[in-house]
UniProtKB/TrEMBL annotation:
Residues 1-105 form the FAD-binding FR-type domain. This is Oxidoreductase. The keyword Flavoprotein applies. Residues 232-319 form the 2Fe-2S ferredoxin-type domain. Coiled coil: none annotated. PANTHER family: CARNITINE MONOOXYGENASE REDUCTASE SUBUNIT, NADH OXIDOREDUCTASE HCR. InterPro entries: 2Fe-2S_ferredoxin-like_sf, 2Fe-2S_ferredoxin-type, 2Fe2S_fd_BS, Beta-grasp_dom_sf, FAD-bd_FR_type, FNR_nucleotide-bd, MRET, Riboflavin_synthase-like_b-brl. Keywords: 2Fe-2S, Flavoprotein, Iron, Iron-sulfur, Metal-binding, Oxidoreductase. Gene3D superfamilies: 3.10.20.30, Nucleotide-binding domain of ferredoxin-NADP reductase (FNR) module, Translation factors.
Length: 319
């Protein structure tokens, strides 16, 4: 992807909760930023080879700035630590134009937004958009404690504050999230959106399925997953490059291709962002990403080479 990058500057930086930095980014030349839809993210180019995706949590109707919230992750692979260390007020940085892999559905009768921890960020933008569209929704924010949670003041002051409900692990039992009650029956007009730690999301998604939600009414965005590299070795043929490489157990297709001189653009390396998506010409992928939809996976014509493997002995890729 050879996209044009945007030059932005950190106009405001505030630490909130426990290890969350909230950044307001504006265009360095003072012009308006590109429009975005709720659920979108941007890629931040922090250093050569260090690109990370963060959800936009500002009001989509205001493109004078983009707001991000980034948790300093103790298990960081360099992204969140770099954000906290180098993105000080006045610092210029390059970002991509917004991309949206987590859009709001059209014509929903009711939307249920469920954010866990820093997963609240895309939900805030969604709440602004749904409020301005005059659509029925609820925003449920789950966290370990009030003290550790960011964005509480903004949510309290927001024009949609009456639709926000908070749930904290260390507070009274009666305020904790009753998932079945909040979701209700999975009728045709109800859509559910969730983002947060994988355990939280698995619980929410399982609850939605138990309530009868159709798969295309369950909307999810993962920001971190565990990559499973287990499985037998297989062969990848790079059709355009004229090279064949053996992928060993525990090795990614991405790394094996790099060793024979085939460089694929990468970013998250966890099957979340879609940067390393390649077309499949022959063979059957073993999809292990959370980027492709179930329908796209069933088509078996695309693969994320950072994490997925093969069910067939050979994959032929259009690279």
């Amino acid at each position: 992807m050879n996209e044009e990058l945007l030059n932005v500057v950190v106009r405001k930086r505030v630490l909130q909760g426990d290890g969350v930095v909230v950044l307001d980014l504006t265009r360095a030349d003072g012009s308006l930023l590109p429009a975005f839809a709720a659920g979108a993210h941007v890629d931040i180019h922090l250093a050569p080879g260090l690109v990370r995706q963060y959800s936009l949590c500002s009001n989509p109707s205001d493109v004078s700035c983009y707001r991000l919230g980034v948790l300093k992750d103790p298990a960081s692979r360099g992204g969140s630590v770099s954000v906290h260390d180098i993105l000080v007020e006045g610092r210029e940085v390059q970002i991509s134009a917004p991309r949206n892999l987590f859009p709001l559905a059209d014509n929903a009768q009711r939307s249920v937004l469920l954010g866990g921890g820093i997963g609240i960020t895309p939900m805030i933008a969604m709440a602004y958009a749904l409020h301005e569209r005059g659509e029925a929704f609820e925003l449920h924010y789950c966290g370990r404690s009030r003290r550790s949670s960011a964005f509480l003041q903004e949510l309290q002051d927001a024009p949609f504050a009456q639709h926000v409900v908070t749930h904290f692990d260390d507070e009274a039992p009666e305020q904790k999230l009753d998932l079945a009650k909040v979701l209700g029956a999975g009728t045709a007009g109800v859509h559910m959106y969730t983002c947060g730690p994988s355990g939280f999301m698995d619980w929410v998604i399982g609850g939605a399925r138990a309530q009868g939600y159709a798969e295309d009414h369950i909307h999810k965005e993962y920001f971190q997953v565990e990559v499973d590299a287990s499985g037998a070795s297989f062969e990848v043929v790079a059709a355009r490059s004229g090279k064949t490489v053996e992928i060993a157990e525990g090795q990614s297709i991405l790394d094996a291709l790099a060793k024979v001189g085939i460089k694929i653009e990468k970013s998250c390396e966890q099957g979340v962002c879609g940067t390393c998506l390649c077309d499949v010409l022959e063979g059957e992928p073993d999809h292990r990403d959370v980027y492709l939809t179930d329908e796209e996976k069933a088509g078996n014509d695309q693969i994320l080479v950072c994490c997925s493997r093969a069910k067939s002995k050979t994959l032929v890729l259009d690279i």
